Amino acid sequence: MSTIAEKIFARASGKGEAEAGDIVMADIDIAMMHDLTGPLAVESFEKIGTEKVWDSTKIVIPFDHQVPADSLDSANNHILMRKFVKEQNIENFYDVKEGVCHQVLPEKGHVIPGTVIVGADSHTCTYGALGAFATGIGSTDMAMVLSTGQLWFKVPETIRFNVEGQLKENTSAKDVILNIIGQVGADGATYKSCEFAGETISKMSISDRMVLSNMAIEMGGKTGLIEPDGKTYDYLKDRVNGENKNRLKAFIEKSNLKSDLDSPSLEIMDIDVSELEPQIACPHNVDNVKPASELGDV
User: What's the whole-model pTM score?
Assistant: First the structure.
């Protein structure tokens, strides 16, 4: 009787079980910071006094927010981060040409279902589309992760959006998530694990699923999770390498990474999108969502 989030934290904490509301110290599988948030984390890490990061193979650093450098300050940030990468022997450094961080990590095979991923960026929840508990953290929290490889969490409750219906022409995953945010509000899922399930989600591509997970934070969610399936495996199988390839195959074949519907911490919200039309988020809040047909004069 556990949710996906509870099952992931049961493993990551080494406790064997975890329930919503528990405070756990979790092992971190991947830590991501980019050129904008990374410098603050590095400065805090150096203040701690730890000479070496806990595991240089589990740290991913993409340059994507201020590229090319648009000011002297951002250029100095790049210099600081390059120095850190060299000193700490960070293997997974992606320079300015690689792309946006939330695309880079999945594309380069750093996201595995069932893992815990933290990033110094609020939209780190994107990786939940591949079945990882992924969430944004602050730069000082990232400094502790760099030093210890662990971070404490309060295991979140889960709200499961059960989405059914065939999307109409010219509607997409973005319309689905905007409609959900419009219904629950910008703070309607605060510190909850947002699960996206149902036939509509099953039919979506990984790219479309990433749109849903990416915007979980826009309704206050801690993460945005989608149960891994055959599409998850097909997307990742040629992207992961070495030990992770075997880990991925075994995980997909043997894991039961799905929420038990009788879990006491699970809330279910049924949504029919068969009549959904394109949605627009209007000023000045993300939950001020209206159908495009009501905004013909814009």
Answer: 0.92
